[in-house]
Specification:
By secondary structure, the protein is α/β, with parallel strands linked by helices. Among the domains are: 2-214, Rossmann fold; 268-322, no CATH class; 336-398; 509-573, Orthogonal Bundle (Muramoyl-pentapeptide Carboxypeptidase, domain 1). The protein has helices at 2-11, 42-51, 64-70, 72-75, 114-117, 121-128, 172-183, 188-193, 219-233, 236-245, 252-261, 268-282, 285-294, 301-311, 315-321, 325-331, 336-348, 362-374, 385-412, 419-428, 435-444, 454-465, 468-477, 484-508, 512-524, 538-550, 561-572, and strands spanning 21-27, 54-60, 84-89, 92-94, 99-102, 118-120, 135-140, 153-154, 165-170, 199-200. The strands form two sheets. A six-stranded mixed sheet has the order 2-1-3-7-9-10. A four-stranded antiparallel sheet has the order 6-5-4-8. Helix 2 (42-51) runs parallel beside helix 7 and helix 13 (285-294) runs antiparallel to helix 14 (301-311).
Length: 573
């Protein structure tokens, strides 16, 4: 592979270095032209590896060029190499000879450009091959599809690891749990056995212990292990459990910061509410000033500033009449759910606001500015209420237009019930509004929706469908087929992702009224969820899958936090 050779030459440095254990952790979740990918706290896991003695490089949502720069950590000369751990979570493309880990800026590559928009795994494995006592490459992805040109396929292809390199594949969440196991002193075989979603490629060194086991009574190692477990779970409860065990631990400040970021820090919201109630009851300028001093970004900060301007006439009132763009946006008092909805709408309109996490960082501000320029507005990077309504209306209009094209194609092809027409509809809209009906009609007629012939044709069909049912069909027909191992691996990944989503929905504890709101939203979006009665039937699950596919979310058929936030935010708006 000439491109791989050129990249290898560009990466290998000439500066000598001492022996060291090295790790590279990359979490690519927010792809511009592909569905987002769930994962775990990349930075926290990298920090835990660093505390375990590894020289660690990490990155989140890296484009191709910075991704290659990050891998320079592996290429640097080392006369006496130590252990190597590389975890790559994101999207992969492959052909018959090579698999590439793709940067987040990937845009429908072909075989000739995949090496420019991603990094070949053969190169990564060669850079790891001198690890002593060994090297572990962890590859995390899911079954969703990335657009590409003919000659490439989604996912991880056949790999030929060099001697000394062990490869583990699975979901990003399962890979993170393996890293946590390593930090506790587990062998490669023990870590893989602890999670059914993980697969160790043949010839992997199951007895390899990538991280030396901790010594008995090593409090620092206990602290590090607890932090790694919290980072894998990445939930408020996990960070609270860590702080309960290690209130003054190495990672206590980071745990408290993460709790605030996910908006569930213990006592914060209650304290905000209590301070606001006291200020409102007193209703004096001093009381509102005290509230703003304690909670400058509190949930009631906008209302406090407004009342403060009313109580302090003169220059303050004049300034309040024409606030800065930033102050005007703060006065809207947008909560995280509303902010996440805005980010999803901007992404739907072709901007790049970053992950829909409810945090307006630099990428979101740039996306807002770009949208404002495109609509002939002052590019302030901050929103007004009317602009938020316009963004929502434009995003909804785009979704409605997509649904209209779907319906028009259905009328042209499958509405008559003709088998060829039904297949034509499914070919263009495999997750479309009428996809379930088309498959049902074909099944009732005793006709396969897309009847493949032979091992290779069935495998290509299953890869194109990308569903658990499709891989199950392949394995039923060809249990010992050429791609049986790959089908089982992909089936395990899909099932693990769906099970995680099912558990996430259960944790949300949706009330009947919340379920009805979700069904009403699905109905208004044209997703055909069936009766709006608060009972999630098979029709509802199919509608959720269509909604998730249309909104660039993980397609599971279950209401994850990301899905319910988008649906309920639109309803509340």
């Amino acid at each position: 592979m000439r491109i791989a050779a050129v990249l290898l030459a560009a990466l290998i440095g000439t500066v000598p270095a001492w022996a060291e254990n090295r790790a590279v952790i990359v979490g690519n979740a927010d792809y511009r032209s592909a569905p987002d990918l769930a994962g775990s706290d990349t930075m926290a896991l990298a920090k835990a590896l660093r505390e375990a003695g590894f020289t660690t490089q990490q990155g989140v949502d890296l484009e191709a060029r910075p991704l290659r720069r990050l891998l320079e950590a592996l290429a640097r000369a080392d006369a006496d190499p130590g252990a190597r751990i590389v975890a790559l979570n994101g999207r992969f493309l492959h052909d018959a000879d090579e698999t590439w880990f793709m940067g987040t800026d990937t845009n429908a590559p072909g075989p000739a450009t995949a090496g420019v928009q991603g990094v070949p795994l053969s190169l990564v494995m060669r850079l790891m091959a001198d690890g002593d006592p060994g090297a572990v490459l962890i590859l995390g992805t899911d079954g969703q599809q990335m657009p590409h040109r003919p000659g490439l396929e989604n996912g991880i292809g056949a790999l030929a690891p060099p001697e000394g390199v062990s490869v583990v594949t699975g979901t990003p969440e399962a890979g993170a749990r393996a890293l946590a196991q390593f930090l506790g002193g587990a062998t490669l075989a023990q870590a893989v056995a602890a999670d059914r979603a993980l697969v160790l490629l043949p010839a992997g060194a199951g007895n390899l212990r990538p991280v030396p086991p901790r010594k008995a009574g090593d409090a620092m190692a206990d602290d590090r292990d607890a932090w790694a477990e919290a980072a894998v779970a990445d939930s408020a409860q996990a960070y609270r459990d860590y702080l309960a065990r290690f209130p003054q631990g190495l990672y206590a400040p980071a745990a408290r910061e993460r709790l605030v970021q996910i908006g569930r820090a213990p006592g914060i919201r209650n304290a905000d509410r209590a301070a606001w109630a006291q200020a409102a009851a007193t209703d004096t300028a001093e009381a509102y000033s005290a509230y703003l001093k304690e909670f400058p970004l509190g949930r009631h900060a906008g209302a406090a500033r407004k009342r403060l301007a009313e109580l302090r006439p003169g220059p303050s009132a004049s300034a309040a009449a024409q606030p800065s763009p930033a102050a005007a946006e703060r006065a809207l008092d947008l909560d995280p759910v509303e902010r996440a909805a805005i980010q999803r709408h901007l992404s739907r309109l072709g901007q790049q606001p970053g992950p829909a996490d409810g945090v307006f960082g630099p990428r979101t501000r740039l996306a807002i500015s770009a949208w404002q320029r495109a609509n002939g507005l002052a590019a302030t990077g901050h929103l007004t209420r009317s602009q938020i309504r316009v963004i929502a209306a434009q995003a909804e209009g785009l979704a409605t237009e997509t649904a209209a094209r779907d319906g028009a194609w259905w009328q042209q092809t499958g509405a008559s019930g003709d088998a060829e027409g039904l297949r034509a509809y499914l070919h263009r809209y495999p997750q479309g509004l009428h996809a379930e009906a088309a498959r049902r009609l074909l099944s009732e007629a005793g006709t396969d929706p897309d009847p493949p012939r032979g091992d290779e044709a069935t495998w290509r069909w299953a890869r194109r469908q990308g569903s658990a049912a499709a891989y199950e069909t392949y394995l039923e027909r060809f249990p010992q087929g050429a791609h049986a191992a790959g089908a089982r691996e992909r089936l395990a990944t899909l099932r693990a992702g769906i099970e995680a989503a099912r558990r996430e929905e259960a944790v949300l504890g949706l009330t009947p009224s919340a379920r009805r709101l979700i069904e009403e939203r699905l109905h208004s979006a044209g997703m055909q969820p069936g009766p709006v009665d608060g009972a999630f039937t098979d029709e509802t699950r199919a509608a959720l899958r269509r909604y998730q596919a249309a909104r660039n979310l993980r397609v599971t058929g279950y209401v994850t936090q990301q899905t319910v936030s988008g649906l309920l935010a639109d309803v509340l708006r």
